[in-house]
Predict the structure of Zinc-binding dehydrogenase.
Amino acid sequence: MRAVVINRFGGPEVLEMAEVPAPRPAPGQQRIDVALAGVNYADTAVRRDAYPVPIQLPFTPGNEVMGALPDGRRVVALSRGGGYASQTVVNSQTIFDVPDSVSDADAVALTLQGATAFHLLYDNLQIQPGERVLIPAAAGGVGTLSVQLAANRGARVIAMASTPEKRALAMALGAHAVVDSSSVEALSERVEEAAGGPIHAALEMTGGPVFQATLDALAVHGRMVVYGAAAGEYGTVPVSHLLATSQSISGFWLPTLYSNPSYMRAILGSLFLACEAGDIKPVHHSTAYRLEDARQAHEDLAARRTIGKVALIAGP
């Protein structure tokens, strides 16, 4: 079968197409014929050997797929690799049925990134109506869904994005104000000005100076959840600062929820229902990448040329 394989860590050039043996399900696993493989920032971390857990080479990246089981059921699945392939095997507990009314493209957009946005906003930060909520990378996969989910909860959404086109998209999705994130100069002041005051709750996935600017814009008793470090540099904060401000900062990595399939099923059920009702509308990148275009997809993602969900077409 066809798969994208990493034999050494490095830039997008290490993503190589290969013919490999079809995987055989072990006990507790099922085989999926992959239609779409989601591409996420975590995949770029895997490629660079910057993932939170060690990766053994050779390795096929891809932690989410949309496809079909041998009995024909349409499913999405979450895994720890193996998705960039025409077939993959996944733990049965992290395979979820997709309603007929939800398209393949929407389903894969709602799986890893939708579940991340849902958990970050509703369960981790527990945002409330009227709160000022900061959403970074608001035109990305997690960002476009987060803007909509936060607005649906009645929050005042302040969206950060790097281009006028991306900021316009965030406004169209329900943001109340937008901030240019292409420069970190006076970023915290610009965020507070756009928000009309300090931020009550914030998502953070960039790291470095953006982490510090987000912290500086956070209100007393404010909450921030960190779910990545796209800039390659994790932010730090003294405990003394947290004591003085009564702020809370937490971290999140989606695979920690894989052991709770009933919770994941509930999240995806809520997201699929919201999609069916038109309450959320996944945004898809305009370029149709195939498995052999994985290098280009990674390059475009790293260069911030993408908007919304990025996926690889793995089927015929």
Observations:
- Residues 114-254 form a domain with the Rossmann fold fold (CATH 3.40.50.720).
